[in-house]
Amino acid sequence: MASSIDQLKNIEITTGEIIAEYIWIGGSGIDIRSKARTLKGPIGPNDVAKLPKWNFDGSSTGQAPGDDSEVILYPQAIFKDPFRGGDNILVVCDCYTPQGQPIPTNKRAVAAAIFDKVKEHEAWFGLEQEYTLMQKDVKWPLGWPTGGYPAPQGPYYCGTGADKAWGRDIVDAHYKACLYAGVKISGINAEVMPGQWEFQVGPCTGIEAGDHLWMGRYLLERVTEMAGVVLTLDPKPIDGDWNGAGCHTNYSTKAMREEGGYEVILKAIEKLGLRHKEHIAAYGEGNERRLTGKHETADVNTFSWGVANRGCSVRVGRDTEAQKKGYFEDRRPASNMDPYVVTSKIADTTILWDPKA
Prior knowledge:
Helix 2 packs parallel to helix 9, helix 3 (168-181) packs across helix 4 and helix 6 (261-274) crosses helix 9 (339-352). With 357 residues, the protein is an alpha+beta fold. The chain is built from nine helices and 13 strands.
């Protein structure tokens, strides 16, 4: 039976049609939904305008009431489909009412408006998505003894070996799926807590950062689904002396990357500090369980920055300090943050916001 199903899944489509998987963010703000349709192909990566809008039952995703349930999907970005192969595509969409208004859970539309205003600043982002792989039936990290704990943290970060790196096949499969799809994935590594990993997306410009991270998350959900493993983006999946999971956000503008950029960076960090509480509120649910001042985090209630200091809210790299230009890292965002919200919030605060106004 399995071989027959695989044979059908891998059959070549010769009718000139393709399968387009439309992908969107559900009502919780972190769940990913998708459904497929048949279209005439081929459709290239820059042919978003050729894709039709579609609709779905928003009452079943927590995005519309039952008596007015239609939500419209607007295609925004196209990626190659590593699961179906061929000319088939994956489509990142955002959600609108039938009247053309963004629904409340559509954070992309708000972010796109901000990035349109700061386009000449060429805001670059590099996102470090940490995540934890969980055993399906017991909801306990992959590789951990059921109901028990592995050896303390220390040997797992970037570790190798059957007693240290659990889930590498899943991680590598996801890595290759991202590269095939066209996601700007720049690397992976095992994290400090065993069963926890990270993939990096970027550098990306403006709204592209959110599109690519969400696609990377979708691909990871699909790969873990195939492997029978559960993905969690909980910022503190295991209580106690174990690292949490974040989504460190590296950021620069054109002015920061040019001569004299260090002063621009320092002014941007100062502005982030003035809006600390507002940013924390937008940086992911449950983040206070992670930002304790321990395990390479700053306390959630206090803003700080430093050079090469991973215990600060914002870290400036040694290279940036030495060259007097470059980028900085906002270490506060949680693993379950919305990249559309976080990236646009950083751009808005550091570029558009005037503290004296």
